[in-house]
Every structure is written in structure tokens, then in C-alpha cells.
Amino acid sequence: MSEQRHAVKELMDSKGFQAVVVIVRMALGIMFTYAGLTKIIAPAGFALAVYNYHILPAPLVNITAIVLPWVEVIAGTCLVLGLWIPGGALIVSGLLFVFAIALGFNLARGLDVACGCFSSSPTAEKITWWYLLRDGSLLVAALGVLFYDRGLFALQKRVISSSSKTG
Amino acid sequence: MMERIRQGMVHAFWMVSLAVIIGTVFNMVRPAGIPFVGDWSPQAVTELYAGDLEIITIDDAFALLSKEQALFLDARDKEAFDAGHLPNSVNMTPDQAADRYEEVRTMLKAGKTVIAYCYDVDCPLGADLVRDLRDLGVGPVKVMPEGWTGWLDRGYPYE
To answer: Which value does ipTM take for this structure?
Structure first.
């Protein structure tokens, strides 16, 4: 059993696997940064997209539309740069989980609203199972980064290692 | 794994705090900033979707229908239309406007009041359809924001 565990750990730590994790981390980071920026550009449109989900109470719609895009941008940028990777990955996983719940909830109750996933235009994309599948795949990828990223090409690791060398 | 989650939660707390500060300040200083608490009442949503259009109430629309003066455009999808719709209505979604605007022109030439509707005030498709028709030079078409749900709530007849 411990031999098996050791073999899995070796595989996870291998350069090939870590290279894949880094690519996934950067792709997620770019995706979330981009998604956040498009929402920041058009806050009224994104507020309408949030409202169209009919999940949040009305007083929380605008504040969500104001803060959420920045959470995406900060988490995404951290993933790209390799700063606070567990935090970035945890936030991205949490957001994807919440999006999946919101998508599934509206899908189940048959509400015909736009997705609002990667666009601030509420009529841009209709909710379909495809988005739920896409969201689920991204969630698996984000959890992979959260648990298996070892900091390859990470700015934070470089800062830490260079400061410890000089120190 | 638990250590990664614990670490992540500490980072996430600071990142979200930073997002709250930046988001709030940025929203306050930018010209396109929005109110922190928005007005999402039915009136405000109606204004948002159909503020630039000619609006008709359900009761006025029913009065016109009773006099055989109203024709309706149901902007919902075909499944919703087939499940139930207003009398004297045809199904026309906004993306069909460019191909079928002549039908609306014919209705208007017959001297009827043409009224578009969707599910309820939260659905923008009725207003979108009227706007698309207007852009194609077809009008005036009115919009009934309370839509199908409002019509049913009043107990008016449907097919």
C-alpha cells in the first residue's frame, strides 16, 4: 500500500506531470482574469446578468457585480504569476462550484436566462448542459492545481528561494 | 491536502478582502460606476428593458383584443408558445425578426395594434423584438412587459 502511495507521489512530482499542472494553472488564470476584466468593463451589464440568475436577493445583486469580477481578476492573476497558488486555486474552485450550483439550479427549474459565464451581455449565451459540463471540467482542473501544483514557474517560489539563498 | 486547503483559505481571505477594497474604490471613482444597492423592482426592470419603447398594460391590451383590434407577437421560444399563448398571437423570436418583419408590416397595414410580449417583466425578449423590428423600419409595435405570466394572473383567456 505504501509502495503504491509512493509511486503515485512520484508520478505527481514528476516534471512531466508538473508541466501539465502549470499549463492548466496558467490557462485557468488567463481565463479568469479575462472573464473578470470583461465584467469590470461593463458593470451594469454584469449586474443584469447576476440579477437574471434570480438566486441572490435584490440588495446583493449590485455589490456582487462590483466585487466578484475583482475576485476573479486577482485570483486569476495570482495563478498566472504563481503567487498564493493555493488561495487562487481555492477561489477559482469555489467560484466554479458556485457557478455550477447556479447553472444546475436554473437548469432544473427551467429558467430561460442567459449564462453570464464569460460575458456581460445577458442575452449572449443560453444556459445549456454544455456549460455545466464545461464548468465541471474546469472545477476538476482547478482542484488539480489546488492539490498538485508544486510551484513550477511560480514567482513566489522564485522569490522565496532567491531570498533564502541571499539570506 | 488539508494543509493546502488551510493555506488556500488564508490566502483566499486576503485576496477577497483586496477585491472588496479595489472593487469598492474603483466603482466609486469611475464614471460608469453603479449604485451599491440597485433598484431591481418590476418598474425599474421594465424601464431598463423597455424604457425607450411604447409600453401597453395588460388591461389595455385585453380591451383592444376584446374589440378585435390587437394582434400579439409572442417572443418566447416555440416550446413555450406551443404550451400556451395569447389569442390572436403568432410566435416570433427576436432572431426571426429579420426574416419575418413583412408579416408584422402586414398586421400594421390591417390597422391592428401589434403588441409583443415575453414571459414577464424579467424577460427582455419582447422588448428586444420590438427594437429589432424598429431597426428594420417596422413599427410602431408596442411591448407588454408583464407578459404571459401577468396575462394568466389576470385570468384572461389564452389558447
So the answer is: 0.82
